[in-house]
Amino acid sequence: MNHNPVFDAIDFLQQPGWITLVFWILAAAGIVVAVYAFSTIRSQRSFPHVCNWAFRFLIGCMWWQQTLWKLPPLYTDHPDQPFGATGLAYWMGVMGKAAAVPLQADLVNNVVLPHFYLFAPIVYALEALTAVSLILGIFVRLWGLIGALQILNLWLGLYNAEGEWPWTYFFLLVLQLIFALHHYGRSLGLDAVLVARSQESPRHRRILLAALA
Predict the structure, then answer these.
(1) For residues 108 and 48, what is the distance between their CA atoms, to the nearest angstrom?
(2) Measured between alpha carbons, how far is 7 from 2 in angstroms, rounded to an integer?
(3) Where are the chain's structural domains?
(4) Helix or strand run (H / E) with residue 168
(5) What is the distance between the alpha carbons of residues 107 and 26, in angstroms, rounded to a whole number?
(6) In this model, does residue 204 exceed pLDDT 60?
(7) Which residues contact residue 47 at a Cβ distance below 8 angstroms, ignoring those fewer than 6 apart?
(8) Which of 38, 44, 66, 102 has the fewest CB atoms lying closer than 10 Å?
(9) H helix and E strand count, the chain
(10) Shortest CA distance to 60 belongs to which of 131, 123, 141?
(11) b/e string for 63-78 if b means 16 or more Cβ within 10 A?
């Protein structure tokens, strides 16, 4: 049978292991937050807010899915294969050969890959936290920008990679910037709840929350 989005999604949601349980809890929390914001904040009860939430939630799920082939401690979904043949190390190697900017290729080849197990946890943590931010709608302005920088790294790093379409990463880069610039966390997310409650907070706290959310 050919792959299709419905069966791929069902398969993704039924994968055995603790990581699937974590995702279900995270997704359920995102839905609970959305329902709470919708029911308690009158300004959230609009069709655009619901659409913004759905877009943000789905892209957050995409980020989460993309962490599954680089899980610690080996940062690959094929631990039986030699180092660099699969997983995060493989794609770092591709970036070292295909980067659009020679300086980026040199950095990957001479700094990142020789110290792979120093940088790999950082890459994994940033992607996982970006997923959490988008699914829950928490500090989306900040993590939208961090996600955009991660995508920028991929866009330039895989620009000349065989079989890759650079526009894919560019579209994701634009999406992340849209989420950040248009405050998508304030659509049925924890950012909306924080902003609503910050009206009763001291001025310095309101400024800080506004900057983050």
Answers:
(1) 41
(2) 10
(3) 5-212
(4) helix 166-181
(5) 35
(6) no
(7) none
(8) 102
(9) 10, 0
(10) 131
(11) bbeebeebbeebbbee
CA distance 111 to 103: 11
Tokens at residue 161, please?
């990679």
Tokens of 104: 């980026």
Distance, CA of 107 to CA of 96 (rounded, Å): 8
202: left (phi over 0), alpha (psi -120 to 50) or beta: beta
pLDDT single digits (tens) 159-202: 999 999 999 999 999 999 999 999 999 999 999 999 988 776 66
Residue in the structure block whose two tokens are 């800080």: 208
Cβ atoms of residues 127 and 189 within 8 Å: no
The answer to whether the beta carbons of residues 63 and 147 sit under 8 Å apart is yes
At 18-59, the pLDDT tens digits run 889 999 999 999 999 999 999 999 999 999 999 999 999 999
